[in-house]
Amino acid sequence: AGAETVKRAVQLDAASRFQESLVCYQEGIDLLLQVVKATTDAAKKHRYRQKISEYMTRAEDIKKHIEKEKQDGKYHKQIRIEENATGFGYEKLFHEYLTEIVSEVWVEDPYIRQVHQASRYLLYNFLRFCEMLVKGPCKVKTIHLLTSYNEGSGRSQQMTALEEIKQSLSNYGVTLNIEFSSSIHDREIRFNNGWMIKIGRGLDYFKKPQGHFSIGYCDFDLRPCHETTVDVFHTKHTKKM
C-alpha cells in the first residue's frame, strides 16, 4: 500500500498537482515507516530508509513551493465532488482554511433565499455555514452576505429568515451584514486571512434529504452531494464588497 501511495504521489507531482501529491507523499511515508519497523532484513531496511529519505526531501520541497505560492498569491487547489459523493460537509471543506486569525467572512451567493417550500434548504445551508463559523476555531466577528432578493411573496419569508439568523448570530457576538443585488451571479466565500473558495453550486451542493428523519438530514457529512467543483485560492489581500 505504501509503494502504491508514493507511486501516486510521484504521478501527481509530475502533473504539477502539488497539494494532492503532498498528501500522498505524507501518507506513503507513514506506510513505509510501518514497513521498516516490521522488516527484519537489514538490506531491505536500508533500501526503504533511502527511499523514505528521498520522499521526505521531495515533500519538504513541495511544502516550500506551496508556501511560496501562497505568499505570491498564486496558490490554487481544485476539489472535484462527484455526484452522490458523501463526506463533504462544511467542516470538512472549510476547516483547514478557518485559522484562528479569521475574524471576517464574505459570502456571495445569489440563492440564499426561499422560493418555495421545497427550497427552504438554501437558507438552512447558510445557517449551517454560520453555525460552523461560530464553533471555531476561528474568532469570526463579522459576516457579510451578498445575495439576491426572493421573487414575489417569498421575499417576506426570506427577510424574516435572514433577520432571525442575524439576531441569533448577535447572541454570539457576530454581526451579519446583508446586502442584495439583482445582478449577482458569482458564488464565492472569502476569509480575511487571504483564503478564497469558489464553489460551482455555492453552498447548495447537497441533495435534499429523503425525509426529516433520514440519515444525512442533520449530519451534512452523510448527505449525498450534487456534482460540483471547488476552487481554492490564496491571495495576499482579500477584497471587500
TrEMBL record:
PANTHER family (alphabetical): MIT DOMAIN-CONTAINING PROTEIN 1
SUPFAM superfamilies recorded: MIT domain
InterPro entries: MIT_dom (IPR007330), MIT_dom_sf (IPR036181), MIT_domain_contain_protein1 (IPR052817), MITD1_C (IPR032341), MITD1_C_sf (IPR038113), MITD1_N (IPR045331)
Xref: Pfam families: MIT, MIT_C
Gene3D superfamilies found in the cross-reference section: MITD, C-terminal phospholipase D-like domain, Phosphotransferase system, lactose/cellobiose-type IIA subunit
CDD domains attached to this UniProt entry: MIT_1, MIT_C
Source organism (scientific name): Hylia prasina
Top-level taxon in the UniProt lineage: Eukaryota
Designated name of the protein: MITD1 protein
Extent of the signal sequence: none
Domain MIT as annotated: residue spans: 1-71
